[in-house]
Amino acid sequence: MGISVVLLAYKEAENLEFLLPKIKENMDSLPEPYEILIIDTEKTLDNTPEVCKKHGARYINQEYPGFGGAFKTGIKYAEMDKFLILDSDGSHDPKYIPSMYKKFIDDNCDLVIGSRYTEGGETNDAKSSIIMSHILNTFFRVCLGIKAKDISTDYRLYHTDQLKRVVDQLENVNYDILQEVLLRMKQNKPELKIGEVPISFQKRIYGESKRRLIPFIIGYMKSLIRFTFIRYPLFRNILLYGVFGGLAFVIDYIVSLGLTKTIMKGIPEVASIIGNIIGFIFTFFTNTFWNFKAKGKFAQRAASYGGITLIGMGISTICIHTFKKSMNFSVLKLIVLIFVSAIQFVLNKLITYNEKVIKSEAK
Fold it and tell me: How is the chain split into domains, by residue range?
């Protein structure tokens, strides 16, 4: 029982000198023991170790890259059953710690956020940052299915064991790890209960912000797509299935055309069959290893995938034969291709790449 207070520091010695006494003052008012962990850069860049020693904080060099890596390092070394994290630049006032703790305990929350955007909260950040923050929060709330109003801040109080259960799944190295951890926690506990306590967000006391606008925006856009695919894996499966199918069509066409113009002049049927086989091999391997990530029962899956491919060819042939006189061939071919691909996807999803079977193989 107790609270691990974690601050991620990047040349923040001046701010820590001011902040640590205030943190200790507010932590001392709580009825639980606590520890303070300062996660510094991989190599020490200022006198942060001396400041930590002076104020009784535990100094740790981060073991993984980026902001996300520092966060993961903090999770790794946290020894108490609650995990409180706040900015080390002074923008998060420690005076809100008692009210966050009360909300956490009284409402039995899985997570409490020191929120700028809930009723009573405010931010003194630049207008451009506020606008961007609101946009990001809106998109990520929809993407993650999180109802909290401020999910881009790291002023948070967690249950440490919930963080330790997801830490190995966290991949983001930048600030978007703050959204990723919510997604992973919600996957483990769909009824995740999040509380928010209003805070006043201030500008940093000393030094300059480490965030760079363009990489920051690009990183968040990539993460938005990746998180959507994580939350809705079927979207990812369908998209990749279509992409790999399209590439297979191009490969099939190039191979068939190349063979008919070289070593198989006069026998386009054989060239077409060879092209089909190569396209089949391409889609089977890409869907197996990259899309559905199924590594077991290889021969069985190949047979299933091949059988479903033959079913698709049969349906396609019947459709084209039936409607070829009543429809433009190009339009008919496109409709049949979409229709047959949808059928093949469903059959492969249910049979070849059955999710329950794949999960049992992984175990």
Answer: 3-231, 233-362
Six token digits for residue 165: 């259960």
Kindly write down the DSSP assignment for every residue of 217-264, as one continuous string: HHHHHHHHHHHHHHH-HHHHHHHHHHHHHHHHHHHHHHHHHHHHTTTT
Beta bridge partners of 114: 197
Cα–Cα distances in angstroms (integers) from residue 252 to residues 56, 61, 306, in the given order? 67, 53, 16
Question: What is the C-alpha separation between 229 and 159, in angstroms, rounded?
Answer: 26
**Angle between helices 127-144 and 213-231 in degrees, nearest 10:** 10
Q: What are the average pLDDT values for consecutive 10-residue runs of the chain, which has 363 residues? A: 95 94 97 97 94 96 94 97 95 96 97 94 80 83 87 95 96 91 93 95 66 66 85 87 89 82 74 82 92 86 91 84 78 81 90 79 60
* Phi, psi of 79, rounded to the nearest 5 degrees: -110, -15
Q: How many alpha carbons fall within 13 Å on the CB side of residue 134?
A: 10
What tokens appear for 163 in the block? 């963080």
Partners of residue 111 on adjacent β-strands: 158, 194
Helical axes 66-77 vs 177-188, angle rounded to 10°: 50
Query: What is the secondary structure of 114-165 as a DSSP string?
Result: EESSSTT-EE-S-HHHHHHHHHHHHHHHHHHT---S--S---EEEEHHHHHH
Picking from 358, 357, 355, the residue whose alpha carbon sits closest to that of residue 233 is 355
Helix boundaries (H) for the chain: 13-27, 48-55, 66-77, 97-106, 127-144, 160-166, 177-188, 213-231, 233-260, 268-286, 298-323, 329-347, 355-362
Q: Is 100 helix (H, G, I), strand (E, B) or coil?
A: helix
Question: What is the architecture of the domain spanning 3-231?
Answer: Alpha-Beta Complex (3.90)
Round to whole Å and give the CA distance between 347 and 196: 45
